[in-house]
Design brief:
With 352 residues, the chain is an alpha+beta fold. It has twelve helices and twelve strands. Strand 11 and strand 12 form a beta hairpin.
Length: 352
């Protein structure tokens, strides 16, 4: 099968059923050994391994480590909506994707021409980034930014609804036993004071969320027991959360939208909580700005998006208004560049 990426109208093809099963299993237990994945899917370990290796070699899928805000930069991320000069949105998006602080960049239609998320490594860089670097990018007509105050859902928690209850129960044991999966996120609080080996291990896990203690030991030249202890500590503290990185279009979700909601102050927390439970939710955040809540969701088609906007939002308390930006093409996600639905080669160093 030929895999084609992109946004609406790009002709993107979804993965076949066997590949989707692998993705769904990895989303639930991204660090599960191949033997457990195979058992859950009812195939041999060699078959599961070949499917995963093919998806990785074709740059369609990658298991990365999503870093908590407290260790990926100083302060929380910012949402930025950009209006470009006519015909220059793709050019603007490409230039913004070159910024080291850009975690996500997409060409969009609707509220903005380009939507991006940024997180400066140092606080002193924030003013320069938001008042000069982004607005001064050639082709940018205007830019509006909002500080992320907190998140009710992060994209590592989104699941492809495909597994049976028995499969989920089997894989869930990987979460409960052995302490190999990430615990509660640190929540983007005060930046953690980490040692040199912890920081080096974070970088390894950011690039490969399935890296074992043995691999960390070999790559960093530290003892295996030390590598195991550090790896487990980082995972259990939620400073790094293993997750599957793959374009939603390959999973059968043809539409992706960024919905900015204005909500009455007393209803923000409840609305954010309920939006985080919506099956479309990949990332739900509260912000300081005109948008009280930003919901990044994926939908099977226009009917799904229509139902969300006209029915599901109508049932939320306190919603005053909303704006929509439909993703046409994602150029970067989680610091990883991509094109035509494929991940660019290279390592992830930070993630929001």
């Amino acid at each position: 099968m030929e895999y084609v990426g992109g946004g609406p109208g790009s002709g993107v093809q979804v993965l076949d059923g066997d590949d989707l099963d692998v993705v769904a299993a990895l989303q639930l237990a991204p660090r599960a050994p191949l033997s457990l994945l195979a058992q859950a899917l009812g195939v041999s370990a060699s078959t599961a391994g070949r499917r995963l290796a093919r998806l990785e070699s074709e740059r369609l899928l990658r298991v990365i480590g999503q870093l908590d805000w407290s260790v990926s930069g100083e302060g929380h991320p910012w949402h930025v909506w950009v209006t470009a000069e006519p015909g220059r949105a793709p050019e603007v998006a490409r230039r913004l994707a070159e910024l080291p602080e850009a975690t996500l960049v997409a060409v969009t239609a609707g509220q903005a021409d380009v939507y991006c998320a940024v997180q400066p490594a140092r606080r002193e860089r924030t003013r320069e980034l938001l008042t000069r670097s982004i607005p001064g990018t050639p082709g940018v007509r205007s830019a509006r930014s909002e500080l992320v105050l907190g998140s009710s859902a992060k994209s590592d928690a989104w699941r492809l609804p495909r597994l049976t209850e028995d499969q989920v129960a089997l894989l869930a044991g990987q979460l409960d036993g052995g302490g190999s999966e990430a615990g509660p996120a640190a929540g983007g609080g005060v930046q953690e004071a980490l040692g040199a080996d912890e920081l080096r291990t974070l970088r390894v896990l950011a690039g490969d969320g399935r890296a074992t203690a043995a691999q960390v030991s070999r790559e960093l030249g530290i003892g295996r027991s030390t590598a195991y202890r550090i790896t487990q500590s980082l995972l259990q503290r939620g400073l790094v959360r293993p997750r599957v990185e793959i374009e939603p279009g390959l999973l059968g979700y043809a539409l992706e939208a960024v919905v900015s909601l204005t909500v009455s102050p007393g209803a923000v927390r409840e609305a954010a909580r309920r939006l985080a439970e919506h099956p479309s939710a990949r990332y739900v955040s509260t912000t300081a700005g005109g948008s009280c809540i930003v919901h990044q969701g994926v939908f099977r088609d226009e009917h799904g998006l229509s139902d969300f906007l006209t029915r599901d939002l109508a049932e939320l308390p306190g919603v005053v208004s909303f704006d929509v930006s439909v993703v046409l093409e994602a150029l970067r996600r989680h610091w990883l560049d991509r094109a035509d639905g494929r991940l660019a080669p290279g390592d992830a160093s930070r993630d929001s």
